[in-house]
Amino acid sequence: MGLSRIDSKHGLSNIAPERGSFATGAIAGFLGMVLAGGAMADEFHYRDVLVGTRAAAMGGAYTAVSDDPSGLYYNPAGIIHADQLNLSGSVNAWHSTHTTYKDVFGEGRDWVRESGTLIPNFFGITQPMGPGVFGFSFVVTDAIQEDQDQVFSDVGTNLDRFIINLNDTQWVYKLGPSYAIRLNDDWSIGASFYFHFRDQEEVVNQIVVLDEGTGPGDPDADLEWRYRQNQNDEWGVKPVIGIMWEPEGRLSLGASLRHTHVLSASNFLGFSCIGSSQSDLDLCPEGAVDYRIFRDSETRDHPWELRLGAAWFHSPRWMISADVSYHSSFRDSARGGRDVEEVWNFAIGTEYYLSNTWALRGGIFSNRANTPANVVEHDHVNLYGISASIARFTRNSSLDLGLGYAHGSGQGRVLPGGDPQDVTAENLTIFMSSSYTF
Amino acid sequence: MKHSAIKAEDSGAEPGRRTWRCLSPLLALSLILMPLAPVLAEHPPRARLHQIQPVEAAEANERAEIRVGREVAARILARHKLVDDPALQRYVNLVGRAVALHGDRPDLDFYFGVIDSEQVNAYAAPGGYIFVTSAALALMEDEAELAGVLAHEVAHVDRRHIVEALNIRAPEASPMAGLTRFFGGATEATQVFFSQAVDRVVELLFEDGLQREDEFEADRFGVRTAARTGYDAEGFSRFLSRLSELEGARAADELSDTHPAAGERLERIRVLLQEEGLRGPEQNRFQARFEQHRP
Asked: Which segments cross the bilayer (chain A) (predicted)?
């Protein structure tokens, strides 16, 4: 358990960094050591936010469909089917996550983090132009406003209280133009050129109050307070190329390939600490406020993503589609650095029209972790979800209301060096959107 | 870039297997989906139901109208049997279909029948099922009068008077019906819908009657249709006039519950004939041919 570190005379000294080493690249190494639960936001999954409305309701199984503005993101080749001006916007009315680390401080003492935020999930427009179709879209692919306020009392030997207050905000969004052309009756290709932005800020306060008799002023209590502010901003480009093959009228096969190239990054870490008699003196000097600031501009790498999809347009009333997606492995230099594993995900979706004016959509999908199953440092939770929506159509417009829910369990490690805990995670998204065709 | 190196290693080691790994789920899915046969071939494959709404709705509504009309025809024949004279039935059908072809819905299949009834009347069920009573036929003196009566009933169908009055629509246009169908109760829901519609149509035909304006409109359109078909346009008004004078207006009373007063109708038709110059040659009454078939 992590507490044993605090209880021990060694404190955190065995993992303290050398002062002189805090140069470029040092933030990553430092971050993972100084506070519990160092990995914030959700960098372990790629499907936390399902983009679009029709697509989201179908579990994201949209690579071979992609015939409305959402296709600008999933597979730009599909927008070739947009034969008139089409505006589409969706709002994730509410996107929330709930992660529980079981029995972190003994049985029944769970470590709980929650996030709830309103997301402007997607806006897109398609317009026939020249020999093809032009489009422009704005996509929010991840949004987290995570919060944790917990106090644990009488946890372990010599530890009276453990207080943690965490606020973590992360936004990842992209915007850019797209264009698609038809090569012949069966084949079309398209490309989107997204500008990629990522903005993350995290503030953590952690107070450890030791039992009476452990401090230098015996029998007074002793405490350690740590504060960390971490900010990472990055921007780059994310080109997407897509291809669609429709060999038989009702069957469509699609594929898209994308990769984010980070062109610029700004990383900031501010760390302050008042140490206890048990603290690592290099990292957190006893009784004194130590404030350190680190900056660097190290850019993160991102995985290659390949999506393959198939769709069957059985009739004007019913269609079904499926996607498999692959994210390559890579080395993430952020947050202590880690080897990110390759990930396969799947999605299956369907759409059924109750009438000319009402349609139901549904889907199932996976959101698997890019971490090793054998938990060493980072959570490993594979999520599986369902999604559904109901749509109301008029002649030129539609209004959608839907939800997505994903649940998963696995293991994670809250305290550096401690034993892994059982983790359960839930994501709930309620979304609504409207689109208009001119 | 490290991921590039990894990719190069992988592809260099087993390129075929890697490609197959990527494509195999897709091919498997395609094989699963292939047996699902197409249903509606007339629409572009990607067209969704809401995008083909106008065409689809009109077709579905007409199918519903015909289905209701067929049920109503069965109810009418349960009350009054068909006159057992195939030659007469064929003759009335020929005259009726000739008239209907000059109406507003020439693509609709019309069916005509002479039913055994002492009441002087004619009935038009939705979807093109039209009946004239043997008593009405007995009152007629020539084919132009028969054509005039049938044209009046055809006009009711063409103008969808009952369909509009009772708001007969395809059940699939209703969200609740669609939901019921989705969860497997399609047949039952549809049956309930049609049964209720048929009951209301029968009430309208035999008891309540149509709106006065609908009758006047059927008179106008019927007279014009008969004239376009080549019949003496005054045939219908002659029949109506004779009906109103018959035996102290006994037969007219039978119509009075379901139709406006004959006098007002005759006056409107007279004005119409005059204004539109529809008075046709007398020889187009085809009296001799009519006499050959009248029972």
From this structure: 21-41
Q: Whole-angstrom Cα distance, residue A292 to residue A290?
A: 7
The answer to whether A261 contacts chain B (CB < 8 Å) is: no
Task: Return the residue matching tokens 């519990």.
Answer: A36
**Does ipTM top 0.90?**
no
pLDDT tens-digit readout, A151-179: 888 776 677 888 999 998 988 999 999 99
Domain ranges of chain A: 3-437
Strand A330-332 and strand A318-327: pairing? Answer: unpaired
Q: Confirm or reject contact between A332 and chain B (CB < 8 A).
A: no
- Asked if the peptide bond before residue B126 counts as cis, ω within 30 degrees of 0, the response is no
Q: Write out the H or E segment, with its range, that includes residue A216.
A: none
Residue B285 per-residue DSSP state? G
Tell me if B56 and A356 make a contact (CB, 8 A cut-off): yes
Tens digit of each residue's pLDDT (9 = 90 or more) over B198-238 = 888 888 888 778 888 899 999 999 999 999 999 999 999 99
- Which residue of chain B has the CA closest to A341? B3
B103-115 pLDDT, tens digit per residue, is 999 989 999 999 9
Confidence of residue B8 (pLDDT cuts 50, 70, 90): very low
Q: Does A329 touch chain B (CB under 8 A)?
A: yes
Across the interface, do A314 and B36 touch by the CB < 8 Å criterion? Answer: yes
Which of B16 and A351 is assigned the larger pLDDT?
A: A351
Mean pLDDT along residues A375-390: 89
Q: Beta strands B129-133 and B111-115: pairing type?
A: parallel
Say what the pLDDT of residue A64 is: 97
CB contact A34 to B (< 8 Å)? no
Fold of A3-437: Porin (2.40.160)
Identify from B4, B40, B42, B49 which residue to disrupt to test chain A contact, counting A C-beta atoms within 10 A and taking the largest count: B49
Backbone φ and ψ of A400, nearest 5°: -125, 145
Instruction: Identify which of A250, A304, A360 has the shortest CB distance to residue B182.
Output: A360
Q: What is the three-class DSSP state of A174? A: strand
What is the distance between the alpha carbons of residues A81 and A356, in angstroms, rounded to a whole number? Answer: 20
Is the pLDDT at A18 greater than 80, yes or no? no
Q: Give B219 or B260, the one with higher predicted confidence.
A: B219
Among A84, A304, A315, A320, pick the best mutation site for testing chain B contact (most B Cβ within 10 A): A315
